[in-house]
Amino acid sequence: MKKFQSRRVVVKVGTSTLTYENGKVNIRRLELLCKVLSDLHNSGKQIVLVSSGAIGVGMGKLKLKSRPKETRFKQALAAVGQCELMFLYDKFFGEYNNSVAQVLLTRDVVANEYSRQNVINTFQALLEMGIIPIVNENDTVAVDELIGQNFGDNDNLSAIVADLVGADMLVILTDIDGLYDSDPRKNPDAKRIPVVTHIDDSIREMAGGSGSNRGTGGMATKITAAAAATSAGINCCVMSGNDPSKLYKLIDGEQLGTMFVAAEGTL
Prior knowledge:
This protein is α/β, with parallel strands linked by helices. The protein has 11 helices and 8 strands. Helices cover 43% and strands 15% of the residues. It starts with 7 loop residues before the first strand and ends in a 7-residue tail after the last strand. α8 packs parallel to α10 (219-231).
């Protein structure tokens, strides 16, 4: 794979990457992620971070063992968790002299032509000012997302954001190292697919079901996001988020995870 020459990169990180099984924040991994993204930003990359985790972090902060079923409680957890999450991002990015901004989106905002352009203008201004936007679904008010009918998890949101900001690359960090021909957690002989040049039904069938107890996504939503990104001319890499420092290797051209090739671009 050629060396990654992209200047504007959207990185999406999931709840399972940000938290431990008990729901509490994985501080070591979060801090490393912020350090790596800060370094990439310092090198001249424009970084946009799409971060899940508000509800998961809220669960950990309130010591809940399972995700509540009622929408109003999910919204309350999102309100608690988003505050904690942004506090941590501001702290860790700030330690490397980088400023962050919170951007909370809902589908109606993106769907409306006027407000969509305002969102684009805001992103552009933040990036021009050298600020790292941190994006999440506005779970506190976006009822549809909490029941699976809005952006369809932040994987899809990350593809939408990548299109909005005109990104060169979307990187989705998750708890599995790319797309496999079968579930590697069940089949020890499962083989990772390093490159996908066309997303069809056979690729979609390889994707599993829902994600972890703390999140809502799974490989299926990542395939959907990759399809949206590549159709917009944006390369998309789905890779493990266990070691954020591997982002350096990806940018230097090493093959990691699964690379979904943009419809209008080549690697």
